[in-house]
Design brief:
There is one protein chain. The chain is an all-alpha fold. The chain has 7 helices and no strands. α3 runs parallel beside α6.
Length: 183
């Protein structure tokens, strides 16, 4: 078996002992790494395989991750409170649409018969997206990635679904409101 590597010109493949001998010095091996006690932090890092034994185990405060967690939790809490506040409105969606029409001074609007079912569907979709946002945020945060965008994506998805269902269930209301603004 032949060695395919090029011949070394400057001792690239020499061992540290051979390099020291060629330089006219004696080889002194590096000191062994210090023995550290096993702590939960050390054990977890060694278990993950990403532990560098030459670095001390000092917890590092990562400001960006902390801010990300605060923002994510804040957005999720806002989502939960927003859901709680809108809960009754979803159950009586026809009444909410009638009150919206009245606030725009539209007196001839009557919601369709099945509009309360649309409200209940919005309630279910809101619950699913809120729980999914929380679950995905927790899973992504455990992997150490940024998570602030997850509640925002859930909010945008719900807004699109809500706007679409509102347009499909009460197109005359939206038309009258847009005419009200165009005057």
């Amino acid at each position: 078996m032949s060695d395919e590597r090029p011949r070394p010109q400057y001792g690239e493949y020499a061992t540290p002992e051979e390099q020291a001998r060629a330089a006219g010095q004696t080889y002194v091996p590096p000191p062994p790494p210090p023995v550290r006690p096993v702590t939960p932090v050390n054990a977890a890092a060694e278990h993950q395989g990403d532990h560098d034994p030459t670095t001390p185990d000092v917890p590092i405060f990562n400001r960006a991750r902390f801010i990300d967690r605060v923002v994510t939790n804040g957005l999720l809490i806002i989502g939960v409170f927003s859901f709680i506040q809108a809960f009754q409105g979803y159950l009586s969606f026809g009444t909410v649409l009638k009150a919206t029409a009245t606030s725009f001074k539209i007196t001839d609007f009557e919601p369709a018969a099945g509009v309360d079912a649309v409200g209940r569907w919005l309630l279910v979709i809101n619950i699913v997206l809120l729980v999914a946002s929380i679950a995905v945020s927790v899973a992504v945060a455990r992997r150490g990635h940024l998570t602030f965008y997850i509640p925002l994506v859930g909010f945008v998805l719900f807004s699109i679904v809500q706007g679409t269902m509102l347009y499909l269930s009460a197109p005359s209301l939206l038309t009258q409101i847009s005419e009200h603004y165009l005057r």
